[in-house]
Design goal:
It is built from 15 helices and 13 strands. It has three domains: 116 residues, 2-Layer Sandwich (Gyrase A, domain 2), CATH 3.30.1360; 138 residues, tRNA modification GTPase MnmE domain 2 (Four Helix Bundle (Hemerythrin (Met), subunit A)); 161 residues, 3-Layer(aba) Sandwich (Rossmann fold), CATH 3.40.50.300. The two termini are 16 Å apart. The radius of gyration is 29 Å and the shape is flat. Helix 10 links the parallel strand 11 and strand 12. The longest helix has 30 residues. It has 450 residues and is α/β, with parallel strands linked by helices. It has a seven-stranded mixed sheet with strand order 3-4-5-6-2-1-7. It has a six-stranded mixed sheet with strand order 9-10-8-11-12-13, with helices on both faces.
Length: 450
């Protein structure tokens, strides 16, 4: 934390400008040594200064230097941003000069790590910074902006506050039983407070699924026997000729992937090899890959052919997918109906890829199953990654265990240990409790210069 660090903060390549960021106790004095123009140690805070970067008295580039003095900076340290001409050679040269004059190359995510360690942002907000850079949809952008602004952290901290209040009352009852103004901790009182906390945690868990959908999208596999129109459906939804379409059974032998937006949510669509018994070794590999894929999907669309009767393969697939989240889609409803669906005791969606809007019913069903309209219209304030979700689930389990223990009349001090653990787990989400190994792992995934 005593080092002055530097890194290229813009994408490295040919462009109009590049930005090199410097942060630390000697940021302004180091840049001032290599800058020809105003004395940067005397310019106003948050000012833009024109001049040149020099090396051995030779001009390297014409630049604009932004001076930002602590604590009103991203890292809360003195920070300088050098805006130079875009280009690999000039940008790398300025970085090299900074390193020669006392800076250290920043580790990935070190600027954001310093912002966290210096108390400017919490850990949940820090994680959202990197997610914002990687966001692909407008809903994802909104989600991460809300996290950066602390709206999601407030929800977690509110539950922690309720737990802390309960812990404080327990401590008073244990340590100062003679204190008359203390709330008496009875089994009924504990149940009431713990049920409220458990419900708060359950709400956080429920909403993490919405966060995951906004962040990663919905993984959808098109499954069915050969020639039912899976590839045509994929091409139609993606609005491009992504998959080869022929009337030859077994044309698709490997996974074909693409994505599109549905009500602001990314749909990751995969066309799979037609599932059937075959002696062709390549096709067998495709079928095996399809069967392995089914375990990882959020949704499976089982495609049947309206123009043909159900086959043995169709019936086997229906049985295999019985307990999966799926949509049964009968394709080619523009042709004569020969399929017999009496054996299917589930809702069936009809459509085709020949007529305009022939897949609308299928898309509407996906929207309904994942409540996409609600996700798209609400202001997203959800937890969104696996680390956060697992910690909330662990905290929920601790509180749930306490409620179970009350029935067996365990002592208050025994219950307090689980309640304290739940408080600590929620603290890990926002970084109020953490270890150095966790921070190193989290920030190692950040972009260099962020």
């Amino acid at each position: 934390m005593d080092d002055t660090i530097c890194a290229i903060s813009s994408a490295l390549g040919i462009g109009a400008i590049s930005i090199i960021r410097v942060s630390g106790p000697k940021a302004i004095t180091i840049v001032n040594k290599i800058f020809k123009g105003k004395d940067l140690t005397k310019v106003p805070d948050h000012s833009v200064n024109y001049g040149h970067i020099l090396s051995t008295k030779k001009i390297i580039d014409e630049v604009l230097v932004i001076i930002m003095k602590k604590p009103k900076t991203y890292t809360t340290e003195d920070t300088v941003e050098i805006n130079c001409h875009g280009g690999i050679a000039v940008t790398q040269k300025i970085l090299e000069i900074l390193l020669e004059n006392g800076c250290r190359l920043a580790d990935p995510g070190e600027f954001t790590k310093r912002a966290f360690l210096n108390g400017r942002i919490d850990l949940l907000e820090a994680e959202a910074v990197q997610d914002l850079l990687m966001s692909e949809t407008e809903n994802a952008r909104k989600l991460y902006i809300n996290q950066i602004e602390g709206k999601v952290s407030k929800k977690v901290k509110l539950v922690r506050k309720k737990i802390l209040k309960l812990l404080a009352n327990i401590e008073v009852n244990l340590d100062y039983p003679e204190y008359e103004d203390a709330i008496e901790i009875t089994g009924k009182y504990m149940q009431e407070k713990l049920k409220e906390i458990r419900q708060d945690l359950q709400n956080l868990i429920n909403n993490t699924e919405n966060g995951r959908i906004i962040k990663s999208g919905i993984s959808v596999a098109l499954v069915g026997k050969p020639n039912v129109g899976k590839s045509s459906i994929l091409n139609c939804l993606l609005d491009e000729e992504k998959a080869i379409v022929t009337n030859i059974a077994g044309t698709t032998r490997d996974l074909v992937e693409g994505s599109f937006l549905l009500n602001g949510i990314k749909i990751n669509l995969i066309d799979t090899a037609g599932i059937r018994a075959t002696k062709n070794k390549i096709e067998q590999l495709g079928v095996k890959k399809t069967e392995q894929l089914l375990e990882k999907m959020d949704l499976i669309i089982l495609v049947l052919d309206n123009n043909n009767k159900l086959t043995t393969e169709d019936k086997k697939l229906l049985k295999k997918l019985k307990n999966k989240k799926k949509i049964i889609f009968v394709n080619k409803n523009d042709l004569r109906k020969n399929v017999n669906l009496k054996e299917i005791d589930e809702e069936v969606i009809y459509g085709n890829t020949k007529k305009e809007n022939g897949l609308d019913a299928l898309l509407t069903k996906i929207e309904e199953m994942f409540n996409l309209e609600k996700i798209n219209t609400q202001d997203p304030t959800y937890l969104s990654n696996t680390r956060q979700k697992s910690l909330v689930k662990e905290a929920y389990k601790c509180i749930d265990n306490c409620l179970g223990s009350i029935k067996f009349e365990y002592t208050i001090d025994f219950l307090a240990s689980d309640i304290k653990k739940a408080w600590d787990l929620l603290g890990e989400i926002v970084g109020e409790t953490y270890n150095d190994e966790l921070l190193d792992e989290l920030f190692s995934n950040f972009c260099l210069g962020k």
